[in-house]
Write a structure and sequence with these properties.
The chain has 88 residues and is α+β, with helices and mostly antiparallel strands. 28% of the residues lie in helices and 14% in strands. The chain contains three helices and two strands. It has a two-stranded antiparallel sheet. A hairpin with a 2-residue loop joins strand 1 and strand 2. The longest helix is centred in the middle third of the chain and has 9 residues. It is elongated, with a radius of gyration of 26 Å.
Length: 88
């Protein structure tokens, strides 16, 4: 078995089945004394992605006092006058 140029390797089907590694399973690599071990992780114990860390960091950090409706009204402008000619 060889590692591809992208660093990928195919885990044989019988090994995947015996280990319970189905598509979407979270795994981690552990390195100990020159041995690489692939370990299945649990949902609660998985590492956060860069995107998840960014969202966590930004969540609750705003101090904007407008409601969503107020923001939308500000962005859309005043309601169109029904008697006025359509904008071009």
């Amino acid at each position: 078995m060889r590692i591809t140029a992208k660093g990928q390797v195919t885990i044989p089907q019988d090994v995947r089945e015996r280990a319970g590694l189905i598509p979407g399973t979270d795994v981690e690599f552990e390195l100990e004394a020159g041995v690489v071990r692939l370990v299945k992780t649990t949902r609660g114990g998985r590492r956060k992605t860069r995107g998840q860390k960014l969202v966590d960091r930004l969540r609750g950090g705003g101090d904007f006092k407008m409601t969503t409706d107020e923001i939308l009204a500000l962005m859309r402008g005043p309601p169109a006058n029904e008697d006025a000619p359509p904008r071009r």
